[in-house]
Design brief:
The chain is of the alpha+beta class. Strands 37, 38, 41, 43, 45 and 46 form a 6-stranded mixed sheet that branches. The longest helix is centred in the N-terminal third of the chain and has 196 residues.
Length: 1598
C-alpha cells in the first residue's frame, strides 16, 4: 500500500512533467492563435510571482503564459495517468472479487461432497464393504486436500483485494489533491483568455480605422480614374468624328474612281462581247457552209452512182436491143469502149499539155526573176529606179490582154528564151502567174511588199490545199435539191449500198448474234523476234454461224502495214463449221513491241483477230526469297542452292552481291546519268562524294560498328533526309541515294560460292551456292542482291539467315547413314568428335531411350584432349521389335529409321569470345573480350583464367561466380512468333512452372543461390518486366504459382507503326497539299533555294550543332496535334502500311521471382524480388506488311454509319485489295445474327493485286449504340473492320391533347381552320406524310365487308370515318401533306373543315406516318354543320351517326295536345318550306336519374345540361344574336324540375348553358318514371322549335 501511495509524489506531479507534442497541439487551439502585444505595452508589466488573474497582471501574458501552459499540460497528463491507473485497479478489484466468489462456491461444493462421502463411508462400514470404504476414504482425502488449497487461495485473494482497494483509495486521495490545482489553472487560463479578448478588440478597432482610410483612398482613385476616362472619351470622340469626315471624303473620291473603272470595264466587256459574237456568227456560218457542202457532195456522189447505174442499164438495154436485132453486141461494146478510151487519152493529153505550158512559163518567170535580181545587185540604185520590174511588166501585159488591145508584145526577157513561140493566151498566162505565185520558190522571187492577210478558214491558203474540183459541165446541170426522180434514185441507191454490206442471218427462227468466225489460235503472237528476219504464222478461221457465210480480208491497222503482210485467198461460200487458212507474215524493221489486229468482213458483220509482236526480254526470277539454314555449331559448314531462272528470250550478265555492296557498273551509270544534270561546280562535289561513300542497307536492330574516321569525313545524308522529309535537291537534280559508312569488316559467316557472276542465256537457269560457316555464336542475317547489265531487269533480293551455336565440341559428320540393314545383323560405324577447347573435356554419349535395346555408343564416357579429336564406336543391332520400340523415329511405310544421339559435355561452364580468346592486339590498343559463364550447378565457383602471349608472358585473371537455380522455371525460354502483319496479333502460350515441392536436395536439384540455404517450399510470385513502348503484351504480368503447379502465360505480339513516323508522313502529306494550293514561286528563286538546300544537305555531319531542318520539323511535329481517329492520321497510317517492307525485332524480357503470395501482402507492401533468381524470355518478332488493305475512305478500318433511324437501313461500301503476291481465299467472321449489321456481298476469293467491294448494311431495330467487329480471315493474316452505328428512334410530339381535334359548328358551305404543331424531338431529320382515313384505299375494301353502322350496336361501332360531303370532296383537309422536319424543329399544320350540307356527325381520322411506314399519331377530327346560325347540344342520342338514304321529315302529330316523344327521330336537315299546320319539331331527350341514398342525409338533385350556341359566319344576316326561350317552365317547376335560365340570347361564336335539375316531389311514384315535355324555341336568321322530353326516375344508391 505504501508503494502505491508513494508512486506519484507531489513534486513529480507538478514540477517534473515533460511536455509532449500531442499535448502541446491540444493546447494550441484556434482561440489561442492571437497576435502578441507590442513591446510598448510590456513596459509596465511586473514579472513577479503574480497570479494571471490579478488586475495588474501582465496583459500580454508573454512571461507567465508559458509556465502556466506547461503546468496545465503536466497536470492534464498526470490526471490522465491517475484515471487510467484507477480504471486498471477497478478492473483488478472486480476480477479479484469474482475469483473470490468462485473460490467460496467451490469450498461449499467440496464441503457438501465431504458430507456425502462421510455418509457413504458410514453406510459402507455398516455393510462391511471394505473396497467401497477404501475408495471413499481416498475420495475424502482428496476432497480435504482440495479444500485446503481453496482456503489458501481464498486468503491470497483477500490479501490482493485489500491491497487493490488501498491503492484505489490512495489514488482517489491524490486525484482530490490535484483537483484544487486544476481549478486554479483553469482560473488562470480564463484570465488569459479575457486579456486576449481585450487585445483582439483593440486590434479590431485599429483594423477598422485602417479599412476606412483605405476606402477613402479607393474612392479618391476612382474619382480620378473617372475624370481621366472622361477626358479620354472626349478625345476619342473627337478623333472618331474627324475620321468619319475623312472617311466620307475618301468614299466620295473612291466612288468616283470606281465609277470610272467600272465604266471602262463595261466598255471593254461590251467590246469583247461584240467581238465574240462576230466570231460566233462566223463560226456558225462556216459550220452551216460546211454542212451544206457536205450534203451537196453526198448528193453529187449519189447522183454519180445513179448515173453510172443508169448508164449500165442503158448499155444493157442497148445490148439486148442489138441482140434482138441480130447484131454483134460484143463488137459494138468493144468499139464503144475503144472510143471512150481514146477520148480519155485525148483529154489526158490536153491536160498534160496545159501543165507543160504552165511549167514552161513558170520556168521562164523564175529565170527572168533571177536575172533581174542579179542585175539589180550589179547596177546602181539610180539606174534601177527608171526601169520597170518583172512584176510591173507582167501585170501591164495582163492589163493589156484583159482590155482587148489586140496583139500585145511580150516583155523582152520573156521572148528571149521562147524563140518563135507564139504569144500565149491570156488564160494561159493567168494560170502561169497564179501557179507561180502559189507553187513558186519564195527564195528566188523578191517581193516588194509583204502581206499580213490571213484566210478565214485555217489552212485554206496552204500549198498542199486542193479545193474540190467540180466538172464545169456538171455544175449548172441540176438544181441543188434535185428533181423528185433524182431523190428517189438517191434513196434507192443508198438503201442498196446499205444492204450490200451486211445482212442478218436467221436459221430456224433463230437470229445469229456474235462473232461469225472463230480463229485458231485466238491471238497471233510473234514472240522474241529479231530485226530483219521473216516470221510466218498460219491461223485457221472457222465458220461459227448457222448457215453459209463469206469471209473477206479488210487488212491490218495503219501502224502495222509496214511490217505485217496477210495472204488470204477467199474460199467463197463456207458452210457452217468449215474452215479456211490465213498466212500472216511479219518482217520486223524496228526493235519495238507492236500490238494491233487483222480485220475481216463477213456477211453478218466484221470481226478481227488480235496481233501481238513482242521483242526479246529478260524475265528473271529466283526460286526462293529466304534461305534459312537453321542452327549449326560454330566450325561446321552448310550449303544451300539458290536458282536464277530466265524465262525470257534475251540473255544478260548477272552478278550476286551483298545488299550493302555496290556494283561498279551501277555506280558509273548512276554517276554518268546524274553528272549530266549537274553544273560544272556541282559535278566535282558529287564525284568526290560518290567516290568516298558506298550505300549499305542495315537490316534488323543491330548495326555493325562504324569507322569513326570515315564518319567524321562523311556527311550524314541519311539522317538529314529523314529529318527534312524530302530528298536533297540541287539545280535540276534529285539525289535520293541513301549513303552510310561501311563497316570495317564484312561478315564472312554467309558467303557465296564460286559461281557468283556470269551470263545467263535465254530460257536458262543458273544455280549459285550459298555457304554458311558460323564463326561467332548468335543469329546471322545477310541480304543479297542480284544485279544485271540489262537496265530493264529489276534488281532481285533474297535473304539468308542462320543461327550459330557456340558448343566447344562439334561433329564434322552430323549424320550417320548405315544404308540398308537387316534384322539380327550387327552394323558398326565410327563417329569423329572435334573440340576447340584449350582444356580437356569429359564427354558423355547417349542414345535415346527408345533405341537403347538396339543401338549403343562405346565408350559411353570419354575424355577428349585440348584441341584434338575423339572417336566413338557406333553399334547397331536391329531386332524384330524395332518398329514397335522406335515409335516416332521409325516410318513403317518407308521402313526408314531416323533417331537422334546426344553428346553431353560435362564440367564446361566458361568460354571466352570472340575467336575463342585468340586475337592480336596492337600497341596502345584496347580489346574487349567476353567471358561467358554457364554454370551447371547451384554453387560458388572460384577459378582462374590465364592469358598467354607469344613471348610466353602469362596474365592471370581470378574469377568468382555464383551458380543460381531459380525456384521457378519457364516451359519455353525462347518464343519465335510467325510473321505477323501490322496491327494484327499473334499469341504464344507458355507456362511458369514451380517444381520445388520438397526441401530435400537428393530427389531433385533444389533451388538456391550459390551455397545459400534452399529456397522455402511454398507459393512463389513472378513478375514480367517487358520493355517500354514495345509491341509485346504479357498476360498475366504478375502471378503466384503453388508448389507442383504451373501458371499459364500468354504473350501477344502486335506490331504497329511508330506514332512519330505516322506524324511525319501526315506532315509531308499536308505540306504537299499546301504547296499545291499555294501559288508557284519565281523559277529563279526556287532554283536558288533548291541549290542552297541541296548543298546544305550534303554538308558533313561532324559539327556539334544539329541541322535547322530537323529542328524545324521537330517543331512542326510538336505543333501537329493529330488524333488517331483523324482522317489525316489514318491516311498516313494506311500509306505507310502499304509500303511497309518488313521488320525483325528481338526482345529479352526479364521475369523476377520472389517467395510468397501476392495476396499475403499488407497494403502496398512490396515483395522482395531477388535479382539472382531472374528468368529471361527471348522473343523473336518478325513484322510484315498486311496482305489485305482497305483502299476506300483513305484506308480507314473504322466505319461509322452515324445516326440511322430505327427501321431504316444505312449502306456503306468497303474496297479491299490483295497486295500479296498470291491469290487468297477469304473467309468472314460471323456477325451477330440478331444484330443490326449485315454483310450483303461476301466474297470467297481475292486474286493477287485485285480489289473487291464489300457492301455492309446497318439496320437498327431499336434505339441503341451498336458496335461489332468483322474479321476478314485469310491464310496469311486477318483484317479487322470495326463497324459502328447509332440507332435513333424517330419521335415527334403533337400539340393536340388527347389526339382529338373538334372543329365545332360551321355553317354548311363555309369553312373553318385550326392549326396544330408537330415537334421533332429526335436527332435525325424526319420525313412525314399526312393520311386521311376517308381517302385510304384499304378502308374502302374493309367497309364493303362490314355491316352498315346503323345496324350495329353502339358498343360495336368502331368506324371513325363519319359523314362526308355530298360533292365527293373530303370534308377535312390538311396542309402540308408531306415534308421533312429537321432535328429540334417544329412544323405547323392547318386543318380545314369544309362541309357542304348539314350534319352533326362529320368525322375523320388523320394519321401521321413517318418515313412512309411508321405510324406515329392518330388524330380524330370532328365537326358539325348547320344550315342556320343556331344549334342545340346535349341530351340523349336519338339517332345513329350515319345519314339515311332518304329524307324523312319528322312531325309531331300530337302538337299542342300532349307529349308524344315516340315520334320517329330526325337525323338531317329538312329542306323545303313547311306549312303552318305542320311545323317541324325536333325532339330532344333529357334523362335524369335521382340517386336515393340509404342514409338519412338528403341526396343531391339530378342534373343535366343543354348548350345553345350561335355560329360565327361570314354571311350577311340581320340578326347578330340567337334568342332562346323554354315554354312551360312553371308547370315543370311543380313537378320538381328547375331550369335556369329559361330564356336568353347568345352572341355569335358563343354558347350558353341551360342547367336542368330535378328533385322528386312528395307524391312521386317510384314505380313509374315521370315523363314531361316542353318546347324550346330558337330565333336567329330563322325560327326553330325543339320539343324537349324530360324523363325522370329514382334509382337506388350503390
Amino acid at each position: 500500500m505504501e508503494e502505491d501511495a508513494n508512486r506519484f509524489p507531489k513534486k513529480e506531479l507538478l514540477d517534473n512533467v515533460p511536455i509532449v507534442e500531442d499535448e502541446r497541439d491540444e493546447l494550441e487551439a484556434p482561440e489561442f492563435q492571437v497576435e502578441f502585444l507590442p513591446p510598448a505595452a510590456e513596459k509596465g508589466t511586473d514579472s513577479g510571482g503574480r497570479r494571471p488573474g490579478n488586475a495588474d497582471a501582465d496583459p500580454s501574458g508573454k512571461k507567465t503564459a508559458a509556465p502556466a501552459r506547461f503546468q496545465t499540460c503536466g497536470l492534464r497528463r498526470t490526471l490522465g495517468r491517475l484515471e487510467t491507473l484507477q480504471e486498471e485497479k477497478e478492473l483488478l478489484v472486480q476480477k479479484t472479487r469474482g475469483e473470490l466468489r468462485a473460490c467460496r462456491q467451490r469450498m461449499e461444493l467440496i464441503a457438501k461432497q465431504q458430507a456425502s462421502v462421510a455418509a457413504e463411508v458410514a453406510a459402507g462400514r455398516e455393510a462391511n464393504n471394505t473396497a467401497s470404504v477404501g475408495r471413499l476414504q481416498a475420495v475424502s482425502r482428496r476432497l480435504c486436500t482440495e479444500l485446503d488449497d481453496e482456503r489458501a487461495l481464498q486468503s491470497q485473494l483477500r490479501a490482493a483485494l485489500l491491497k487493490s482497494e488501498s491503492a484505489m483509495w490512495h489514488i482517489a486521495i491524490q486525484k482530490g489533491q490535484l483537483e484544487d490545482v486544476r481549478s486554479s489553472a483553469q482560473e488562470e487560463e480564463a484570465a488569459a483568455r479575457k486579456g486576449l479578448r481585450v487585445h483582439a478588440a483593440e486590434q479590431l478597432h485599429r483594423e477598422e480605422e485602417a479599412l476606412k482610410k483605405a476606402e477613402r483612398n479607393r474612392l479618391l482613385r476612382v474619382r480620378k480614374a473617372m475624370h481621366l476616362q472622361k477626358e479620354h472619351r472626349l478625345r476619342h470622340q473627337k478623333l472618331v468624328e474627324d475620321a468619319k469626315k475623312n472617311h466620307k471624303i475618301a468614299v466620295k473620291f473612291l466612288k468616283a474612281s470606281l465609277g470610272r473603272i467600272r465604266e471602262q470595264e463595261r466598255e471593254k466587256e461590251m467590246g469583247s462581247q461584240e467581238h465574240m459574237k462576230r466570231r460566233m456568227d462566223a463560226v456558225l456560218a462556216l459550220k452551216n457552209s460546211i454542212s451544206a457542202n457536205r450534203e451537196t457532195l453526198r448528193k453529187f456522189q449519189a447522183w454519180g452512182q445513179a448515173k453510172a447505174e443508169l448508164a449500165e442499164q442503158k448499155a444493157r438495154a442497148q445490148k439486148e436491143m442489138i441482140l434482138a436485132q441480130g447484131g454483134d453486141a460484143f463488137r459494138h461494146l468493144f468499139h464503144q469502149r475503144q472510143r471512150q478510151e481514146l477520148e480519155a487519152q485525148n483529154r489526158a493529153f490536153e491536160e498534160q499539155q496545159k501543165l507543160r505550158k504552165q511549167e514552161i512559163i513558170g520556168r521562164i518567170l523564175k529565170e527572168e526573176a533571177a536575172e533581174e535580181t542579179r542585175r539589180k545587185r550589179q547596177s546602181s540604185p539610180t539606174r534601177a529606179t527608171g526601169r520597170l520590174t518583172l512584176r510591173d511588166e507582167t501585170w501591164g501585159y495582163v492589163a493589156d490582154v484583159c482590155e482587148d488591145r489586140g496583139t500585145v508584145a511580150l516583155p523582152r526577157n520573156l521572148l528571149q528564151d521562147s524563140g518563135a513561140v507564139s504569144p500565149p493566151r491570156a488564160s494561159q498566162l493567168l494560170e502561169a502567174i497564179s501557179y507561180e505565185c502559189v507553187q513558186g520558190d519564195s527564195g528566188n522571187i523578191t517581193w516588194e511588199h509583204d502581206t499580213l492577210a490571213e484566210p478565214e478558214i485555217p489552212g485554206l491558203w496552204k500549198e498542199d490545199y486542193k479545193p474540190n474540183q467540180v466538172p464545169k459541165e456538171e455544175v449548172d446541170r441540176k438544181p441543188v435539191g434535185g428533181t423528185k426522180m433524182d431523190k428517189d434514185i438517191l434513196a434507192r441507191t443508198m438503201e442498196q449500198l446499205r444492204s450490200r454490206v451486211t445482212h442478218r442471218q436467221v436459221a430456224s427462227g433463230h437470229e445469229f448474234k456474235g462473232r461469225p468466225f472463230n480463229s485458231k489460235p485466238k491471238l497471233i503472237h510473234f514472240k522474241d523476234f529479231d530485226v530483219g528476219k521473216v516470221y510466218k504464222k498460219k491461223i485457221t478461221l472457222i465458220n461459227a454461224t448457222y448457215t453459209i457465210n463469206h469471209c473477206k480480208l479488210v487488212g491490218v491497222e495503219e501502224h502495222l502495214r509496214d511490217f505485217v503482210h496477210v495472204d488470204f485467198d477467199p474460199p467463197g461460200p463456207m458452210s457452217a463449221g468449215m474452215s479456211c487458212e490465213v498466212l500472216v507474215t511479219f518482217k520486223p524493221m524496228i526493235n519495238k513491241d507492236l500490238e494491233g489486229s487483222v480485220s475481216f468482213l463477213a456477211q453478218t458483220g466484221g470481226f478481227s483477230v488480235p496481233l501481238k509482236c513482242s521483242t526479246k526480254k529478260c524475265m528473271l526470277s529466283l526460286d526462293k526469297e529466304l534461305i534459312d539454314f537453321g542452327s549449326y555449331v560454330v566450325g561446321e559448314t552448310a550449303s544451300r542452292v539458290v536458282t536464277l531462272t530466265n524465262i525470257g528470250g534475251l540473255g544478260t550478265k548477272f552478278k550476286f552481291l551483298r545488299a550493302s555492296e555496290s556494283c561498279e557498273m551501277d555506280i558509273s551509270q548512276s554517276v554518268a546519268k546524274t553528272s549530266s544534270l549537274f553544273t560544272y561546280e556541282d559535278k566535282g562535289i558529287y564525284d568526290k562524294i560518290t567516290t568516298s561513300f558506298s550505300g549499305q542497307k542495315i537490316e534488323g536492330n543491330e548495326s555493325p560498328p562504324i569507322d569513326m574516321t570515315s564518319q567524321k569525313e562523311s556527311g550524314k545524308l541519311d539522317g538529314k533526309k529523314q529529318e527534312e522529309g524530302r530528298p536533297a535537291e540541287s539545280e535540276g537534280v534529285t539525289m535520293s541515294t541513301v549513303m552510310t559508312v561501311p563497316p570495317n569488316e564484312e561478315q564472312t559467316e554467309i558467303s557465296l560460292g564460286e559461281v557468283a557472276e556470269g551470263e545467263i542465256g535465254p530460257f536458262g537457269s543458273i544455280k549459285v551456292p550459298v555457304i554458311f560457316t558460323p564463326i561467332i555464336p548468335g543469329a546471322v542475317y545477310t541480304k543479297f542482291k542480284v544485279v544485271f547489265k540489262n537496265q530493264q531487269c529489276p534488281t532481285l533480293y533474297f535473304r539468308v539467315t542462320g543461327v550459330a551455336i557456340d558448343v566447344p565440341v562439334w561433329v564434322p559428320k552430323p549424320s550417320v547413314d548405315l544404308k540398308i540393314c537387316t534384322y539380327d545383323r550387327l552394323y558398326q560405324d565410327s563417329i569423329l568428335v572435334h573440340t576447340r577447347s584449350k582444356a580437356a573435356l569429359r564427354l558423355k554419349f547417349e542414345v535415346c531411350k527408345e533405341l537403347r535395346g538396339h543401338m549403343e555408343l562405346l565408350p559411353e564416357t570419354g575424355y577428349i584432349q585440348a584441341q584434338s579429336s575423339y572417336t566413338v564406336q557406333l553399334k547397331f543391332l536391329p531386332r524384330h521389335s524395332l518398329p514397335e520400340d522406335a515409335g516416332k523415329y521409325f516410318d513403317k511405310e518407308s521402313r526408314v529409321l531416323e533417331a537422334p544421339m546426344t553428346i553431353r559435355v560435362a564440367d564446361q561452364f566458361v568460354d571466352v569470345q570472340p575467336s575463342d580468346g585468340f586475337g592480336t592486339i596492337l600497341p596502345l590498343e584496347t580489346l574487349q573480350l567476353d567471358v561467358i559463364f554457364q554454370p551447371t550447378k547451384a554453387k560458388e565457383y572460384n577459378f582462374e583464367l590465364v592469358c598467354k602471349s607469344e613471348i610466353n608472358r602469362c596474365f592471370k585473371l581470378s574469377c568468382r561466380a555464383v551458380g543460381v537455380r531459380p525456384p521457378l522455371g519457364l516451359s519455353h525460354y525462347q518464343v519465335k512468333f510467325a510473321a505477323t502483319s501490322l496491327y494484327h496479333t499473334s499469341v504464344a502460350t507458355l507456362y511458369v512452372i514451380n517444381s520445388h515441392v520438397s526441401m530435400s536436395s537428393v530427389t531433385h536439384s533444389a533451388p538456391r543461390v550459390g551455397s545459400e540455404d534452399v529456397s522455402p517450399v511454398g507459393p512463389t510470385t513472378f513478375e514480367f518486366l517487358p520493355p517500354p513502348d514495345s509491341p509485346i503484351t504479357i498476360s498475366p504480368l504478375v502471378g503466384t504459382v503453388l508448389p507442383g503447379k504451373r501458371c499459364l502465360v500468354q504473350v501477344a505480339f502486335r506490331p504497329v507503326l511508330p506514332t512519330k513516323l505516322i506524324l511525319q508522313e501526315a506532315l509531308q502529306t499536308l505540306t504537299k497539299e499546301a504547296e499545291v494550293k499555294s501559288p508557284c514561286r519565281d523559277t529563279v528563286t526556287q532554283k536558288k533555294d533548291l541549290r542552297r538546300q541541296s548543298f546544305s544537305t550534303l554538308r558533313l555531319q561532324g559539327r556539334d550543332h544539329p541541322p535547322r531542318a530537323s529542328t524545324t520539323q521537330a517543331a512542326k511535329l510538336q505543333k501537329l496535334d493529330l488524333k488517331p481517329s483523324s482522317d489525316e492520321y489514318q491516311a498516313a497510317q494506311a500509306t505507310l502500311a502499304r509500303s511497309f517492307q518488313g521488320r525483325f525485332d528481338k526482345f529479352v524480357v526479364p521475369c523476377v521471382v520472389a517467395s510468397g503470395d501476392t495476396e499475403d501482402r499488407k497494403g502496398t507492401e512490396p515483395l522482395s524480388f531477388s535479382p539472382h533468381n531472374t528468368l529471361y524470355l527471348e522473343l523473336w518478332c518478325p513484322a510484315v506488311a498486311p496482305s489485305l488493305v482497305v483502299t476506300s475512305d483513305r484506308g480507314k478500318t473504322i466505319f461509322n454509319f452515324g445516326d440511322i433511324a430505327v427501321g431504316h437501313c444505312g449502306i456503306k461500301k468497303v474496297s479491299i485489295q490483295n497486295i500479296s503476291p498470291e491469290d487468297l481465299t477469304v473467309e468472314f467472321s460471323v456477325l451477330n445474327p440478331s444484330g443490326p449489321f449485315i454483310l450483303l456481298t461476301p466474297i470467297s476469293k481475292l486474286p493477287a493485286g485485285e480489289t473487291q467491294v464489300l457492301t455492309l448494311s446497318f439496320s437498327p431495330r431499336e434505339s441503341i449504340l451498336a458496335r461489332e467487329t468483322l474479321d476478314i480471315i485469310t491464310k496469311r493474316d486477318t483484317l479487322s473492320l470495326t463497324l459502328m452505328g447509332t440507332g435513333v428512334a424517330s419521335t415527334i410530339t403533337c400539340s393536340i391533347e388527347g389526339d382529338v381535334l373538334d372543329m365545332g359548328y360551321v355553317i354548311a358551305g363555309e369553312s373553318v381552320s385550326s392549326s396544330f404543331k408537330l415537334q421533332n424531338s429526335s436527332a435525325l431529320p424526319i420525313r412525314f406524310s399526312m393520311q386521311l382515313d376517308s381517302l385510304s384505299s384499304s378502308r374502302r375494301g374493309k367497309s364493303q365487308q362490314r355491316l352498315p353502322q346503323f345496324l350495329a350496336f353502339p358498343a360495336q361501332r368502331t368506324e371513325v370515318v363519319g359523314t362526308q360531303n355530298h360533292s365527293g370532296q373530303s370534308v377535312f383537309s390538311v396542309i402540308p401533306v408531306e415534308g421533312v422536319i429537321d432535328p429540334g424543329k417544329t412544323q405547323d399544320f392547318t386543318v380545314t373543315f369544309s362541309p357542304d350540307h348539314e350534319s352533326r356527325y362529320f368525322s375523320d381520322r388523320l394519321q401521321v406516318v413517318l418515313f412512309g411506314k411508321k405510324l406515329s399519331h392518330q388524330i380524330l377530327l370532328k365537326g358539325a354543320a348547320r344550315e342556320h346560325m343556331m344549334f342545340v347540344e346535349g341530351g340523349d342520342p336519338l339517332d345513329v351517326p350515319v345519314e339515311s338514304l332518304t329524307v324523312i321529315p319528322t312531325y309531331d302529330p300530337e302538337h299542342r295536345e300532349g307529349p308524344g316523344w315516340h315520334s320517329p327521330p330526325h337525323t338531317g336537315p329538312q329542306p323545303g318550306p313547311l306549312s303552318p299546320e305542320a311545323e317541324e319539331l325536333k325532339p330532344i331527350l333529357v334523362t335524369l336519374d335521382y340517386v336515393q341514398l340509404d342514409t338519412d342525409m338528403p341526396a343531391p338533385p339530378a342534373t343535366r345540361e343543354l348548350q345553345v350556341g350561335c355560329i360565327r359566319t361570314t354571311q350577311l344576316s340581320p340578326k347578330k344574336t340567337v334568342e332562346f326561350s323554354l315554354d312551360g317552365a312553371a308547370s315543370l317547376q311543380h313537378k320538381g324540375f328547375t331550369i335556369e335560365p329559361s330564356r336568353g340570347f347568345v352572341e355569335r361564336g358563343q354558347t350558353k348553358t341551360i342547367s336542368i335539375s330535378w328533385l322528386p316531389p312528395a307524391d312521386f311514384d317510384l314505380d313509374h318514371p315521370l315523363v314531361v315535355s316542353a318546347l324550346l324555341q330558337l330565333k336567329g336568321d330563322v325560327k326553330e322549335t325543339y320539343k324537349v322530353f324530360f324523363v325522370a326516375q329514382v334509382v337506388s344508391g350503390p
